Structure prediction request, 106 residues.
Amino acid sequence: MSGFGEMGNLLKQAQQMQRELDRMQEELRGARVEGVAGGGAVRVEVDGHGAVARVRIDPACVDPAQANMLEDLVAAAMRDAQRRAEALKKDRLGRVTGGLNLPGLS
Prediction:
């Protein structure tokens, strides 16, 4: 009987850990981190997972009439690069794992 009790405790711990991981994923999604370059001329804001949320470019660095368009283009290019990198990562890991979705590798 003690084997089932221990197994039950392990299952409860695993479920608690999964709930905590889910909570942490949500917390990271809402977190914001800012990267800065060029003495503050360019600022990129990402969420806790590294997804680009916002790009800001000091209008003094470009034609002010084009600043918003340039910001949008930079953000789009960054998102595109992130998507491509994620696809590459999945492809390469898939070759190693035989297509299995193993925790911690995705």
Q: What stands out?
A: The CA atoms of residues 91 and 99 lie 9 Å apart. The two ends are 38 Å apart (CA to CA).
